[in-house]
Amino acid sequence: MKNKLKVFRAMHDLTQEDLAEKLGVTRQTINAIEKQRYNPSLELAFKLADFFGVTIEELFIHDSPEDSAEPEAAQ
Question: Which domain holds residue 22?
Fold first, then answer.
């Protein structure tokens, strides 16, 4: 899942290690989320959003599948 974690972290002048310590996770977890190799648990997603004072939707970008077009209108 795409996210803006690196942007928000930079805006607050935090290293990955700083953010990890504040949230009680490892630096590797923060790195993996930023590189989109790991989707955080819902609990961690809320912790991140609360920490930065934003909504989950502002922090994480939902990618809808390209093949899920709107259904055609009934004829």
Answer: 2-59
Name the residue with tokens 């942007």.
7
pLDDT of residue 63: 76
For 41-51, what is each residue's pLDDT tens digit? 999 999 999 99
Tokens of 58: 């502002």
DSSP state of 27: H
Question: Is 51 inside any structural domain?
Answer: yes
In this prediction, residue 67 has a pLDDT band, given cuts at 50, 70 and 90, of very low
pTM over 0.85: no
Q: For residue 41, what is the DSSP state?
A: P
CATH code, 6: 1.10.260.40
Question: Tokens 């504040």 correspond to what residue?
Answer: 22
Cα distance between residue 18 and residue 23, in whole Å: 9
Number of domains observed in the structure of the chain: 1
